């Protein structure tokens, strides 16, 4: 498969914090999505996961048009806080719910949503039927058209599970503390 430029699609970047750690959630779109529509989709996805998240404070949103590396601030009109409770240490602040999928051309997609509470019963994966909030989020992602697309500009087929993980970057940071 030939490399695909990371600027191949329009992109919205949702910025949020979990216990003062800053994170960004990327949404690739089909080119006809407004900031208000992107805000709604981000807000609805996070609201579905509300019970499984520590408090996430939304701090802003940016947009990049296809073919451009320039990010421009745009208005975020969704809920500005989801989840409950405070992640008290680096381990819980770095834990993420990770949704994965793949499109028809073979491009993969991963959505990391940081601030996840321990919901995997120790096996680091929440399979279909184990957690109603994760199931609802998976159903929501699968029903979307034009949102959370792959770099190849196709809708992904989402795997019917979510991984609960601490990404390698954060594992390295935790080992040096």
Q: How many beta-strand elements?
A: 9
Radius of gyration over all CA atoms, rounded: 16 Å
Overall 3D form = globular
Number of helices: 4
N-to-C series of helices and strands: EEHEEEHEEEHEH
Structural class, by secondary structure, is alpha+beta
- Beta-strand share of residues: 25-35%
The overall average pLDDT, rounded, is: 91
C-alpha termini separation: 40 Å
* Total tally of structural domains: 1
Which residues form runs of ≥5 with pLDDT under 50? none
Helix content: 10-25%
How many strands, what sense, and barrel or not for the largest sheet?
Answer: 5 strands, antiparallel
Secondary-structure map with pairings?
Elements (H helix, E strand, L loop, with lengths): L9 E9 L2 E9 L5 H14 L7 E9 L7 E3 L6 E2 L7 H5 L1 E7 L5 E7 L10 E3 L4 H12 L13 E9 L2 H8 L2
Antiparallel strand pairs: 1-2, 1-3, 3-4, 3-5, 6-7, 6-9, 8-9
Describe the structure.
With 177 residues, this protein is an alpha+beta fold. Helix content is 22%, strand content 33%. The strands form two sheets. Strands 1, 2, 3, 4 and 5 form a five-stranded antiparallel β-sheet that branches. Strands 7-6-9-8 form a four-stranded antiparallel β-sheet, with helices on one face. The mean pLDDT is 91.
């Amino acid at each position: 498969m030939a490399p695909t430029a990371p600027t191949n699609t329009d992109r919205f970047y949702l910025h949020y914090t979990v216990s003062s750690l800053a994170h960004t959630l990327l949404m690739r779109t089909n080119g006809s999505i407004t900031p208000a529509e992107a805000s709604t989709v981000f807000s609805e996805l996070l609201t579905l996961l509300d019970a499984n998240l520590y408090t996430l404070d939304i701090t802003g949103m940016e947009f990049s048009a296809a073919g451009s590396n320039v990010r421009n601030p745009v208005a975020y009109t969704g809920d500005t806080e989801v989840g409950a409770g405070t992640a008290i240490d680096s381990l819980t602040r770095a834990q993420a719910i990770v949704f994965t999928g793949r499109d028809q051309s073979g491009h993969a997609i991963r959505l990391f949503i940081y601030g996840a509470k321990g919901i995997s019963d120790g096996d680091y994966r929440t399979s279909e039927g184990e957690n109603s909030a994760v199931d609802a989020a998976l159903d929501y992602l699968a029903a979307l058209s034009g949102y959370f697309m792959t770099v190849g500009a196709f809708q992904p087929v989402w795997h019917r599970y979510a991984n609960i993980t601490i990404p390698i970057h954060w594992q390295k940071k935790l080992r040096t503390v």
